[in-house]
Amino acid sequence: MKSEFERAITQLSADRNLAPEVILEAIEQSLVLAYKKHFGATQSVVVKIDPHTGAAQVYVMKQVVDQVLDPMLEIELPAARALQPTAKVGDLVEVEEHPENFGRIAAQTAKQVITQRIKEAERDTVYAEFEGRVGEIINGVVRNVDARTHNVTISLGKAEAVLPRGEQIPGEHYRFNQRVRAYVDDVSRDARGPQITVSRTHPDLLKRLLELEVPEIANGIVEVKRIAREPGYRSKIAVAALQSGVDPVGSCVGMRGVRIQNIVNELSGEKIDVVEWSSDEREFISNSLSPAKAVQVLLDNVERLAIVIVPDRALSLAIGKEGQNARLAAKLTGWRIDIKSETEAAEEAEVLAQQLAEAEERSRQLEEQRRAAAELLLQAEALMDAESELDQSEADLVWDETAEPVTEPEVAALEVDEELELEHEQEEADVEPEPLVADATAEPVDEVEAVEPGAEQDEEWLRQAASEDAGEEGEDEDEDDGERGRGRKKGRRLEYDERLGRVVARKQHKQRGRRDWSTDWEE
Predict the structure, then answer these.
(1) Where along the chain do its domains lie?
(2) Where is 151: in which H helix or E strand?
(3) Which CATH architecture has domain 132-199?
(4) Average predicted confidence (pLDDT) for the chain
(5) Residue range 358-372: average pLDDT?
(6) Burial letters for 311-334: b for 16+ Cβ neighbours within 10 Å, e otherwise?
(7) Which candidate, 55, 57, 56, 89, places its Cα nearest to that of 74?
(8) Confidence of residue 384 (pLDDT cuts 50, 70, 90)
(9) Assigned CATH topology for domain 4-127
(10) Pure H helices in 185-231
(11) Is the predicted pLDDT of residue 408 greater than 60, yes or no?
């Protein structure tokens, strides 16, 4: 049979929707604070409560000393060994206390702390519950509409949510006790509890409503690919079937449009167009202009421009009221859409053909440039890696006192090789390399050394760039021959400039008398 204490804890747990352990922990913490406030805040106190009887035991940590100066913090060695036989001077011993005359103030403090802890536990529970529901639909009841900000407060049972004015569907009016469906947009912590923000204009609200009304979407047979929405006016949804033999548009619309009509009613009469998604850009763009039918779709992949030709009688239908249909189709597909009638397209046939030919040529050239640039960069990186390994091997040649002495013929041979190398580097430094451009008719670019991908002299230019780096670094080397191999670093970096469509070379020059490196563009 449960004791009175157990029944009280169980009842409180059911009312507050909290675990009994949470309430017991709150009571223990309140007793600790009350004890410290009555007997001293410097003590280390632990309170343990029996969950069945409600009996509280208070334990205080005291230090073992030879002579007690402060009985609240210290205990003599014999008394400590009576509690713990292995205790010695300097140890901490847990001593049970039996406080009497706790006092009205201490009891009031315990009550306030218990109330505060329970409220905090409730807030944490509500936050944990709604944090995992971000992105879902919730049902609530309107409790208040702010006359100044027009923000709507929605009661969710244990918590309240705020529907800001910017997240409300234009033209909607809310009244007290009205039931509302909303999309949970954000959940955050606050000193007053969890702050829940909901939305009626979020595109995912439409997706969640479709999942509720269309079983094929909830089961994964039909997938919602994209959504374009202008809240309160019109929306477009692109759907695709993941199982053969299923009509994705018909599944969403339902028999006589009953499924989509329920969603329209929930969104205050917002019109919804359901179109079939396709991996073919031309077909997808044509479907996105529904209910208008496109005769032909011409694409400019470089500019992401789609020229759609529709019948003369369907031109206004394709554009829509104030351009709404075309605007939503562009938002749904991600292409800029230019709608032309058949008559207008026939008059501009030559111009359109020329524009499309130029667009295809630009697209082909851009693809070739990217491919050639990638190959050129790979060759340049391989050449620079080889030079780096060579420089590292030269830097590893340091004086070793334990090594065997070099004979005179070997010294003479080394000196001859060194002189020849210095002469070769001087000749390469004196020769100013000419910038090599694949297209002879192209205009030179200021402060950029560029090479068109696919030029015939790519390998020669790379060798010339590598020798030029060696010549420039040779001028700044230390006079000590033993340190010559250590200061060499890669002085050139090749990059592909998307704006210019070329490979550009970037050089690093070491200024004399300074230790920092300045980077500029080589002309």
Answers:
(1) 4-127, 132-199, 290-326+333-347, 357-398+408-521
(2) none
(3) Beta Barrel (2.40)
(4) 76
(5) 79
(6) eeebbebbbbeeeebbbbbbbbbe
(7) 89
(8) confident
(9) N Utilization Substance Protein A; Chain:P; domain 4 (3.30.1480)
(10) 203-213, 215-218
(11) no
